[in-house]
Amino acid sequence: MLKVHAKNLETVAVLYLEGRIVTGETEPLRNGMPYLEGKREVILDLTRVTTVDAHGLGVLLQLREQALTKGARLKLMNVNNSIHQVLEITHLDSVFPTVPGVEFFPIVSTHRRPVAA
After folding, report:
1. For residue 18, what pLDDT is reported?
2. Domain residue ranges in the chain
3. How do residues 54-72 score in pLDDT, each as one tens digit?
4. Contact in structure between 45 and 77 (CB atoms under 8 Å)
5. Comparing C-alpha atoms, which of 48, 66, 54 is closest to residue 92?
6. Taking the domain 3-109, which CATH number applies?
7. How would residue 105 be classed by pLDDT, with cut points 50, 70 and 90?
8. What is the rounded distance in angstroms from the CA atom of residue 1 to the CA atom of residue 106?
């Protein structure tokens, strides 16, 4: 079963996914919609995702549309080679911007407020 762990970073939500985004296992990702409220960006960390099937791609597209409706951008982070190939074959690599984690986290740190002494 797909597991989803969320981390809210002010205007950014990072959803850490673990498992397979396939038929019968996507319900936890669909339940991630509350994390879109008030966010400018939603990052799906795919480091621990092993497989994505056609149904999983459909769920990702639905999530993207819901994010856009709320004024947020959806990005994929740490996409492995096999998932990247699926995105290329389906031409969804042009729909889902991807970022490696090292590029993303310096951006997040610039949005943090200074800690009061």
Report:
1. 96
2. 3-109
3. 999 999 999 999 999 989 9
4. yes
5. 54
6. 3.30.750.24
7. low
8. 31
